[in-house]
Amino acid sequence: MTKRVVHFGIIGCGLMGREFASAVSRWCHLLDVNYIPVITAVCDVNLDATTWFTDHLASIEQVTDNYRELLDNKRVEAVYCAIPHHLHEQYYLDIIRAEKHLLGEKPFGIDKQANQAIQQAIVEHPHVLVRCSSELPFYPGALKVYDFVKEGLVGKVIDVEAGFWHSSDLNPLKPINWKRKVSTNGAYGCMGDLGLHTLHLPLRLGWKPRLLSASLSNLVEERPDHTGQAVPCETWDNATLLCEVDSGQHTFPMVLSMKRIAPGHANTWFIRINGMLGSIEYSTQNPKQLKIMRYTAGGRQVWGTEDIEYHSAYTAITGNIFEFGFSDSILQMWSAFCDELVNGADMIQPFYCATPDEAAYSHELFTAVLDDVQNRISTRS
Questions:
Q1: Which of 53, 77, 377, 378 has its CA 20 to 30 Å from the CA of residue 34?
Q2: 149 and 128 in a common domain
Q3: Are 168 and 260 in contact (CB under 8 A)?
Q4: pTM higher than 0.90 for the full model?
């Protein structure tokens, strides 16, 4: 099969930039796709961060600390941009205006105003494909949840709970980073960092939650800086949102939680949907297990657990008996982005990456959360 080559530039050569590069190196893992990404250019303000890429990728032709030089590169067709939230607006605007296809990191702007500027640029450049990175719904179990609901097996929805928890920040001695500062992370705190992952699948199912109330926590108020001196942590550690969804026929409650501090968890993404006909639950904490209950009137209410085979959105060389993992979900997400870029509406499979509209809705919801919390603080004082 002849494969269409898509030349990529990477802006931001940190953890997620390396994950993308690793996914590209594993492209032979995928079967029956008619496209292949090639990383042609890399950019980071810290040139030392680019060394890993030049050490491992022979395809790189350009290394720069100026992202505008990368955008001037005629060979670069698409860009993966993984940078702190306060830089999203300017960088994403410049990438889109340069007519480069973009897969950007969430939350697509440090706040609602920045997101609206990015949205306007997308409208002005309709031929540029813009998507948001959110790999967790590409786990086979998550896709099974999506199919279960779309096939009408839930019936009337009773309630939904979704969340993304990790415990890497439980240690109060962990040094402060940019996600702890409002100037770089934004006032959303953990919601900006984890929220779109939590919302991706509910929004794709057509459920737009309306906020009823929220609880935000700043559990570790100080952390050591690079000198060891304690400095303030300005952003929210944990957020729990009580929401309501109007399905058109009825309303149902939805609880959304995003936690940087969740004892015993290490990047656990989960969704639980209860319905009058069927209920389903999946968590990456047990990535091979899917819990399902199918109910008929007057019948028994019994949860069953099935082992999930390695059956991914895009066919891979891995046998069904093996286990799907995070690096596989990254590869699948990148395949979806390239698939849509190359094949448009005729994608090989239908589940596409998170959209700018989905990111924009997350901004609407998180802005409402901040307003709700601020109103309660004002009322108390």
A1: 53
A2: no
A3: yes
A4: yes
